[in-house]
Specification:
Order of helices and strands: HHEEEEE
Structural class: alpha+beta
Strand content: 25-35%
Strand order of the largest sheet: 4-3-2-1-5
Largest sheet: 5 strands, antiparallel
Number of helices: 2
Oligomer: single chain
Number of strands: 5
Length: 113
Amino acid sequence: MLITPAHAQAAGAAGQASPMGGILGLAPLVLIFIAFYFLMIRPQQKRMKDLQNSVNAVKKGDQVVTGGGLVGKVTKVDENEVEVELAPNVKVRAIKATLTSVMPAGGAKPAND
């Protein structure tokens, strides 16, 4: 054949790597994952937990924003639904899970007061 024995032996030796080389090559990937966890994943989980707690604690008089962008005042709360008043005499029912923001009643003062 065309490959000399010296080349065949050199190719076999070059393919072997030290065990520490594999571990050290993996270290940057682990550090990147840890950075992503603390900078992105963990804060997002905290925001979702806070939103879920506020949606579960929604009560009559709270101002809410739905997933569709409708802003209104809660007039009735059921186990899975809320009734939201968008304008005088305009009420809609929304599933609690679709609420994206809950502002407690009387929680914020108008800027001009």
